[in-house]
Amino acid sequence: MDEAISSSGLPDLISSLEINDDVSQDGNLQRIVQKIGSPFPCEIGKEDNTDDNNGSHQAAIQDSHACVICNIMDLHRKACLVASHMGNMAQCRGVRGDILRESGAICLLLNLLWRLMLPLQRWNQWVPQNYALMQSERMITGYETPSLLPSTCCMETINSSFKSECVNHAQFRIHHPFSDSVALNALHSAALDLANLCLGALRDLSCGSSLNRSAILEWTPASVIYFNYKSNGNKCLHVENGIHLLCAYMLRYHEMKWDNILRLREQSCTPMDTTTTSTTQKTQLLKDGTCCCETTERGKKELRLLTNTLGAIRNTSHSTPDNCQAFYQCGLVEILMWRLSPELQYGMAQNGNEVFPSDVHASDSTSDATRHWREAKYRAAGSLINLAEKCPSVAKELGSNRDMILLLIEAWGGAKAITIVSNNLRGVPLLHLGLAAILHAAKDGALNGGLDDVMVRILEKEQTRKKVAQRKEEERKSRLNKLKTNTS
Q1: Residues 227/237, Cβ–Cβ less than 8 Å
Q2: Entry pTM
Q3: Which of 92, 112, 146, 142 has the alpha carbon at shortest distance from 43?
């Protein structure tokens, strides 16, 4: 008998199993979309286990809906199909992106993300009431009617529900022994991989296509999910469209420090057991010799999921007023401001007599290249700037916070943008319309005390740039008119 394998090794071993799937080589996007959107085995009850959409392999196996290996294989199969047909920008933009939208790819991706978060008891009574493929650490979930279901559930209950193997996979466990907790952690890891690919595809599809961005807002789930995302339950998000769903994925990590996300451990059989994580913990040192944080394989995947979610939000909010208004109405601005600078939000909350967690970090700069979450912070800042461009309420809210304005200026123009001297703004990029809207809102009275020198110089430089561009355009038209006159 081979040595017992770990949570990190099990998905790779299962993915190496032969999967008879001719659809992946098929150029018919309709068939591919249908295959990706087929039910997860755990969504199919015993009486429905002959569903052709789930493939003949699962249909022929008794109790495959409760087989961990069948479910991991199905998640891996779907992930491979998404990566093969929607896995990069070239496959998602232009005519190809329009074909994917018309084939139902955007609705498919959103449905997958929704199903990954939905408690599985909706389909099967044998699954614990609280369990979803995408388990959350800090969030309370409910569905159909507002309810307060715990965000985690007893692993022993899940073990008794998810059988370790079906008939076809009984020999697999004999030759490759693994514990129940390892199998369930591998299942969660496979779900994270699929969610990451779906969010990445949505990010690319929404880049450069207003029709694709509108399709995300127009998507509606089969039923409404409710997320209570404050410790006292006073904040609730109703997932009723694709914009709300992206916000729900942001809420998985709301009020959780960046380094705590990277430290997320795999679940174990006993709630207090934190030693069974299958990953090698790494402690990285910064340039000054201080400890950054320890990371786990799950933590890195969760941070990537947050980064991809922020990328999808940034692109979906670009130049689309309806989407920006929907993001604003579901409270995303507050969530993004906390994510960029918990200390700023903590101070604002204290002034409003609202209590926030005290475990906030002091590193608010977006230019610190030693941090794993640098790209995520840039995307969060870009999302706020995009929202401010098309939503005046966002511009006014951001324009009332001096430190947040400086943080967004740094994200836009780099560290040199907030340390400029005199009128030397060479190398600073073209002023983003969203950042201009924030600065103008601050100038019009939203910011107590008025604009800083840096803000004033940025607006003056932009005004000068516009005058220069206008003069050059007039000169170009004058030359063109003279050329036409000489020709005639």
Answers
A1: yes
A2: 0.83
A3: 112
419: which DSSP letter? S
Q: Distances from the Cα of 333 to the Cαs of 385, 394, 398, 437, 459, in angstroms?
A: 10, 7, 9, 15, 24
Encoded tokens for 393: 């309420």
- Say how far apart CA 274 and CA 267 lie, in whole Å: 8
| Residue 399 reports pLDDT greater than 90 | yes
Which of 56-70, 196-210, 217-231 shows the lowest per-residue confidence on average (mean pLDDT)? Answer: 56-70
CA within 13 Å, CB half, 172: 23
pLDDT of 442-467, one tens digit each? 999 999 999 998 899 889 888 888 89
Asked if residues 319 and 390 have their Cβ atoms less than 8 Å apart, the reply is: yes
Q: Which of 250, 249, 251, 244 is nearest to 217 (CA)?
A: 244
Looking up tokens 């910064």 gives 286
- Is the pLDDT at 294 greater than 90? The verdict is no
**Are 228 and 170 spatial neighbours (Cβ–Cβ below 8 Å)?**
no
Q: By three-state DSSP, how is residue 293 classified?
A: strand
CA distance 459 to 363: 27
Which pLDDT score, from 0 to 100, does residue 354 have?
A: 38
Could you tell me which of 8, 94, 93 has the C-alpha nearest to residue 297? 8
77/65: higher pLDDT: 77
